[in-house]
Amino acid sequence: MSEPTYLLLIDDKPAEAEATERSLRQALPACQVRRAATRADCLAALADQPPDVIISECSLPNFDAPAVLHSAAALAPEAPVLILTAAANEAAALAGLAAG
Q: Which of 37, 40, 53, 63 is the least buried, fewest Cβ under 10 Å from its Cβ?
């Protein structure tokens, strides 16, 4: 029997994080989700246990997609990072692509 997928969900808006987590649990019922709302929460989660997948909001206070990608590359280099955004922001998308 395989281990459940461990997901790190980074979002500072509780309602959005809850909606994303509900969707994840519908698709992956056995997944384990840890939420982080701040840069400190994210770094602590990455240091505690590298996730299988990181899902992050694009724009967070004091912590944007490139910063998430940089932290993930340093602390969880094997984990793919998915960046989500509710806003159509081409500049943020390009910054995320440039960061990896």
A: 40
